[in-house]
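User: Is it possible to get a 3D structure for a protein together with its bound compound? The compound here is phosphoenolpyruvate. I've pasted both below.
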Amino acid sequence: MTQTQPTTFPDSAARLGQAGAANYPGLDAWRSLPISQQPSWQDEGVYQASVKELSALPPLVFAGEVDVLRERLAQAAQGKAFLLQGGDCAETFDAATADRISARVRTILQMAVVLTYGASLPVIKMGRMAGQFAKPRSSNDETRDGVTLPAYRGDMVNGYDFTPESRGHDASRLVKAYHTSASTLNLIRAFTQGGFADLRLVHHWNKGFTQNPAHARYESLAAEIDRAIRFMEACGSDFEALKRTEFFASHEALLLDYERALTRIDSRTGNPYATSGHFLWIGERTRQLDSAHVDFLSRVRNPIGVKLGPTTTGDDALRLIDKLDPNREPGRLTFITRMGAENIRQKLPALVQKVTDSGAQVLWVTDPMHGNTVTSPNGYKTRRFDDVIDEVRGFFEVHQGLGTFPGGMHVEMTGDDVAECLGGADPVDEEAFLTRYESVCDPRLNHMQSLEMAFLVSGALSQASR
Ligand code: PEP
Ligand code: MN
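Assistant: Yes, that's possible. Here is the predicted structure of the complex:
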């Protein structure tokens, strides 16, 4: 794991007033702990002004919504619901347009309906959206044609363009990330509360996407749902509950200056909440037990995720539980495993067994993307659809073998017709990368691959929930 030198100017940051949460004990303890993957801001004045501005801005999410999510996740941990978490590897400011956001939300709604219908289980819908703007990197630098510049770390830190100006770490981007998250969240709320997510529009969500096999399969499922709704309507049922849907926002809590500045004390309970998103997770590169990230997230009330890669030991998992979920509160802690298709069947059982034996109840979620990244012969970072599906299958098999519940799926996907992952029913090949590879970070499933995955998983899930 790379340790970048943090230059977060800790003393000056601690002096800045932080709306309500300024004096809450422990929220700044992370500043004296080892921290990795932080930017080296080029201008201290801009950094201070940005953190101060963020500290005074309204919260993006509300504590009550965060509590509802914790209850929903507790249901999933107990086998009574399933979490679908999806979105870009890295959101960008430029792609925060109505069309792109709408396509992504519609794709998640479609995947959720496929899973709900197939498994007769409530699906918790969560975007890797409205805040997924900072990326951990395995290397601090990037070299192209003999020129070396700082690596791209997400729009919240620097630009993707390969120039010294763009790659400098500019703290004013923290504020832009906040505002872009706010407008993204505003549109998501409008879509999901304002009629667009009404289940009676189940056909409508498919409109505008390219015709393909998964698209056609979805049409026939939508027709079945339509018929069922019309039947129930004819019987006099009232469908208020179908008109709106809950949709939660999540991102990796990587930049602790940003997260700290948006932490607020809930007036109802007096507890601190990270208000940058409903659900925050700690990445595979920043989950060291005594590190700043684990310490900071142990102190906020939000439901928390931790990514667990193939080197995770049972003891690591138990120590993370002790630190992040000392009260063993259902819904508080989610382990997102990303072992790789070739490892999952060997490595996951011991981990799940150890946690189960300890009496702790966490929510187990599969991330079948990050353990399966390869470079294509023509030089693109990609994933094979078959490997992704194989890891999901392995995840379900392991839980079935142990009698535990496979409670969710975390995917990098988009509603757009990109070519970034290889394969699928209407296969994407390497040639397509040349014209339709758009991701600035990891490769995403496109609309069709996302739907196809939902159909494949719904079969496994209906077995698991029986
Ligand atoms: C990610 O989710 O984009 C990511 C970097 O994952 P991980 O921390 O599991 O490598
Ligand atoms: Mn990623």
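The pocket of manganese (II) ion (ligand 2) is lined by residues 89, 370, 412, 441-442 (CB under 6 Å). Residues 98-119 form the longest helix (22 residues).
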